[in-house]
Specification:
This protein is α/β, with parallel strands linked by helices. It contains 16 helices and 13 strands. A six-stranded mixed sheet has the order 1-13-12-4-5-6. A five-stranded mixed sheet has the order 7-8-9-10-11. The longest helix is centred in the N-terminal third of the chain and has 24 residues. The relative contact order is 0.16. The mean pLDDT is about 90.
Length: about 400
């Protein structure tokens, strides 16, 4: 029991967390489980559930919680690895290797190719992303062009995506996996405005220097025939007292979910206040992957209804672990993020977790004897060896 305490603890967490399970998707406006869309996990994603779930969970972190999680677990793993008595330099190497585990996991979450969940929607809706970037943005991943962006979206069930690079208009006709729609993200006076549709160049200096000047950008976008969406986290961090002026000046909508580490700090109360402002004015509320080529998965999808406009034209679906970031205490992140991961498992994933736990435990538990290799190999040989070999190994009769 003592030797396999970690395996037993993990198995207990997998089972007990099912009593407080989270749905795969929730409506970010109502908090209910959507009836016309489902999150599908591919077979390989489920088969590799411990890796898939952990890397997804490390992706959906608010910035402050990510820092606390990384520091605490790097220290814990470093101390644990160095705890075993040995010469000082071996203990030092083991401690460094323990810290390196966190670095490798973070890099894998951002860069490693892997199977990802995707949304399947019913009815006449388009699964849409309103805000995404290519390498044309200053903080975009090098080499991450429109084709790569489209493939990233297609793998997760999107039917189309707006390309909104920083201060660089996208209006190219590109042969890609899904339609890529024209857009741009303008930076004007401590605010990012996602402009969608037939956008043209603007003189950003005209809309910089003060909030009243910045608000004039919405009228300019309307003259172009484009929409202007206020992006997170800027409008809440820098202009939360001015949001009614945003509405009066012609903003077309607000992001209420943004998958960037800074955007995930948005609290449930703040989200509700923006929804309550947008609904009476019949404004769009949208979710944004804000993908820059870093990371393999999104936390949000939009179900856009053709022919509709305003508040009811779009439904924002999000993963609960992402929505929880704004209200979850940063100092609890090393424990609470993993608890959220276990709560978000479906039963196929729980079975995969238990299977891997059992296989690794068997590998470690089967005794080494007779000079044979240990683990699963010796187990298989003992279970399936030929009768002749079995007889040959028996001691002679007296």
């Amino acid at each position: 029991m003592r030797r396999h305490l970690l395996a037993l603890t993990l198995a207990a967490l997998v089972l007990v967390s099912g009593l407080w399970s989270l749905p795969p998707l929730v409506d970010a406006v109502t908090g209910s489980v959507p009836g016309e869309a489902d999150l599908v996990r591919p077979f390989l994603y489920v088969a590799l559930a411990p890796v898939s779930n952990l890397l997804d969970t490390l992706t959906f972190f608010s910035l402050d919680r990510a820092l606390v999680f990384a520091v605490v677990w790097a220290l814990v793993l470093g101390v644990w690895a160095a705890w075993r008595p040995s010469v000082w330099w071996r203990r030092l190497l083991r401690g460094a290797a323990g810290v390196l585990v966190i670095v490798v996991l973070a890099a894998a979450a951002v860069l490693a190719p892997r199977p990802v969940p995707y949304v399947v929607a019913t009815g006449s809706v388009t699964v849409l992303d309103y805000h995404a970037h290519t390498a044309a943005s200053h903080d975009g991943r090098p080499g991450f062009g429109p084709q790569q962006l489209a493939s990233w979206h297609a793998a997760q069930g999107f039917g189309a995506a707006y390309v909104t690079d920083h201060n660089t208009i996208f209006n190219l006709g590109v042969d890609a996996a899904i339609p890529l729609l024209p857009g741009v993200e303008w930076s004007v006076h401590r605010q990012h405005i996602v402009a969608l549709g037939p956008v043209r160049e603007i003189d950003r200096a005209r809309f910089s220097g003060s909030t009243p000047r910045m608000l004039g950008v919405f009228a300019e976008l309307h003259r172009q025939g484009a929409l202007g969406i206020a992006s997170l986290p800027e409008y809440w961090e820098n202009h939360r007292e001015d949001l009614e002026l945003f509405v009066a000046s012609g903003v077309d909508g607000f992001e209420i979910v943004n998958c960037s580490p800074k955007g995930l700090r948005f609290t449930a109360a703040a989200r509700r206040s923006v929804i309550d402002l947008a609904a009476p004015s019949d404004l769009l509320v949208v979710g944004a992957s804000d993908n820059h080529g870093w990371g393999r998965v999104t936390c949000v999808w939009n179900l856009s209804r053709p022919g509709a406009d305003g508040f009811r034209a779009n439904q924002v679906l999000a993963r609960p672990v992402a929505l929880a970031q704004g209200n979850a205490a940063a100092w609890l992140a090393p424990v609470s993020q993993l608890w959220l991961m276990f709560r978000g498992l479906d039963w196929d994933e729980r079975i995969a977790w238990l299977t891997w736990i059992a296989l690794i435990t068997i590998y470690r538990a089967v005794p080494r004897r007779g000079g044979k290799k240990g683990g699963l190999g010796i187990l298989a040989r003992n279970l399936f060896m030929r009768p002749r070999e079995s007889q040959a190994t028996q001691p002679p009769a007296p």
